[in-house]
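Deliverable D5.2: sample structural annotation.
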Amino acid sequence: MTDHIFDFIGGNAGEWKIVKMETVIGDPIQDASYLKIVNSNLQKTNEDLWTIKGLVSNVRYAEKEEKEKLLAIQAGLGRPADTCAALIPIRKNEAWWNLAQDERRKIFENKSHHIQTGLKYLPAIARKLYHCRDIGEAFDFLTWFEYAPEHSNAFEELVAALRNTEEWKYVQREIDIRLVRL
């Protein structure tokens, strides 16, 4: 069953207009004008320029108390006012994956404060994480963010804060795709 696997498809049609694509580090992807997100069971078209596949999985790296805090205040996707979005695919280097789970956790939260940083921007910025490494994709994670235009500066602060951490020293590829809902 693949109802938890989604395709993020860049092309010439979609419900989201791409307003900016920036390669932060590593290899770029082909420019596209629109993005659509579909369940992987659906048929693709010849107009698609690229597809990045991700799956919804269990929460990783968050401890029980952190997970409960996140669930208590984070907003769901699809709020009518949230007409801005960002898709940020990331691949970490082998040094990251060669660390033990507890070592990655220490860098992720104890040193980089990833969850604590994100909590500051909830519920204004909604997000969903998709895992890609488990299914052999070119990226390890896809993070999808949605927010209202008035929270654009807050979103920029969030992204800058996360990129300025020890955890981001392990990122070898990152694309920053900004979108608006049609």
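Annotation notes: The chain has a mean pLDDT of 92. The radius of gyration is 16 Å.
The annotation will be released with the project's public dataset once the embargo ends.
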